[in-house]
Amino acid sequence: MPFIYALDRFVHVGWLTERDANVLNVIRACHPLLFALVLKRTLRNGPHRLSDAVFNTPAIFFAAA
Questions:
Q1: How many CB atoms are closer than 10 A to CB 44?
Q2: Cα(47)–Cα(18) distance, rounded to whole angstroms?
Q3: What gap in Å lies between CA 65 and CA 47, rounded to an integer?
Q4: Minimal CB count within 10 Å: which of 23, 31, 34, 57?
């Protein structure tokens, strides 16, 4: 499986907890798109995470309207 989905590697480097990885594995099995969103929302590098602006996309979708 590609690195982006290798949850054990994220746990190993400290970006996910073991508990988060277990929950993500359950989500991945039933809803891959939800898995991708939850993964990106859950990843942490110390106090750092992806900015909320990454997920605030209405302007992208409604700009052409």
A1: 15
A2: 17
A3: 37
A4: 57
